[in-house]
Amino acid sequence: MTEPESTELDESVREAVERSRSGAPAVGSVVRDRFSSDEVFQRIVAAADEEITSGARELFFSALAAGFAITITFLLYVSMKASTGGDPVLSAMLYPLGFIYIIIGGYQLYTENTLPPVALTLERLASIPALLRNWVVVLAGNLFGGTLGAAALAFGGVLSPEAANAALELAQKGVETPWWSLFFKAAFAGLIVAGVVWVTFAARDTISRLVVVYLAFLAVPLGGLFHVVVSYTEMVYLVMNGQLAFLVGLTEFVVPVLLGNTFGGVVLVTVVNYFQTTENRLESARFEGAKRQLSVREWVLGGLAGRSYVPLIETEEGTEDHPDSYRVVVPIANPRTESHVVELACALAKSKEDAIVDIVHVVQVPSRVSQRYGAAQNQRIIAHSNEQLEDARERAAGYDIEARTSTVVSHRSFEEIFTVARRKDADLVVMGWSNDRIWAGGRAERTMSELTSRLPCDFLVLNDRNYDTSRLLLPTVDSAHSALSAEVAKSLHSTVGSEVTLLHVVDGPDDRERGEAFLSDWATEHGLQDAARIVDDSGDIERAIADRADSHSMVLMGATEQGLLTRLLTDSLHLDVVNDTDHAVLLVERATDRSLRQRLFGR
């Protein structure tokens, strides 16, 4: 082995040993058992990346567990008060136990969340709405868990009579504390909690973290400070014992503590710790770090302005496009097996002036198995993706259109498609659909926003069994989706010479004449006068399509009810013709304005 090869191997081994799976430092670069502020920040960003991209369900139940664990703190504190005669030091000795469970166990606690996600937001790698969403979900889970814990203590006979009296006295003392005093006491508690997070990321072993957490949270009761989840549990306990009105306790006790904790965690710790770092704080925590930030508009508005989160890797380079360009985005999970999706997109773009096809290889990594962000590993990912995309580039070149390829590595799959479409101001998204596609595997983690948001553009979803565009069957109805199907058929007719057959179904023989008139007018309106026409009087749309599908090479299925795309993603689209035919099926949905109810449930 030559000396350069040996050196390269040594560096590779050293990088593997000294970096965690997330790419964050595992040892200090100057003193091996200590981290610099930049390295601590990189470790926090790696953790924040997992938190900010976690599904709402995962966050909520982790937060619920944390909220219920806080009950342990409340239980032990009042029990020790009762058994020690109210001694302030002895009573507090077991207070930190609930927090130890939460922080060492990796549960989601609202005050602990003031640091990692805020660090990501300060770098404009995550938007303010994404941060607020994280906070709201975690806080809701914490408070629900605290409610369950308070109910168990109030009605479960867990506390002795002496401890129950101590619990009522403790909660009443908090409620009687003046508003501004609560706020500032809570601000110091927020400082302590967020400071604990910073220090635990600077520690390299569990014993050190255990000691830090214990001593820090011991300071909360000894200093007469307030933590929002503990305070909420105390307040609910008081309400369940008939000693306090819920709204009064919420506004006069919990809210000032919540605001104080947030202020202390964000302003006094997060911002101060952020500004003590240098410009190199993201060099190894994120690929190209600060060079790939959200725009100010995206940072403030999140997905409403394009995207709410910067993917782990994104190779697209900014280019100036003509404002009237027709943009077709083609998200693919496997460039080797989705060539027909690319081919369809290029054929459609060919019929448009100034069309641009953006082929985006979306590589999903699980949120709990973070991708290494080290530059060497990322370059290998990019190189492998670029090699796989070569076939897509060759296919696009055959259509003599402008085609671009890029790679996105993210914890998300389908949501990333929406983000890319909005950011590129796409006119059309063409994507593949089958059971082995990455989008199908991501259904369980979909967010509610995917179901309730308007489509960013028109969508075509191709099931490419025996892909062939020579003979198209186009069922027609009077809808925007059917009109989009007509545009697709017309484009394929002009670019690849597809033969088009129009099908219209009426309720019975008495309606045949009306159906023929409708189909004639519809064909003329959509520029398909030369297409063959069939009027079926069976009244059964699905059977009519199935009967004629085998004599055609592809069926274009416009959404006959709104919400077809979301039904596809939730596996609630049950059309026999889609599942049983051996030919290609193209599902078509036009972006339309719909009410929330229609977006969720269809018409």
Automatic annotation (TrEMBL):
The source's domain of life comes to Archaea
Main subcellular location of this protein, as a coarse class? membrane
Q: Which InterPro entries match?
A: Aquaporin-like (IPR023271), For/NO2_transpt (IPR000292), UspA (IPR006016)
Instruction: Identify the stretch(es) annotated as Disordered.
Output: 1-22
Query: Which regions are flagged for Acidic residues bias?
Result: 1-10
Spell out the molecular function terms from Gene Ontology: formate transmembrane transporter activity
What residue spans carry the Basic and acidic residues bias annotation? 11-21
Protein name in the entry? Formate/nitrite transporter
Location within or outside the cell: Membrane
The annotated topology with respect to the bilayer is: Multi-pass membrane protein
Coiled coil feature spans: 375-402
- Origin organism lineage: Archaea, Methanobacteriati, Methanobacteriota, Stenosarchaea group, Halobacteria
Q: Which organism is it from?
A: Haloferax gibbonsii (strain ATCC 33959 / DSM 4427 / JCM 8863 / NBRC 102184 / NCIMB 2188 / Ma 2.38)
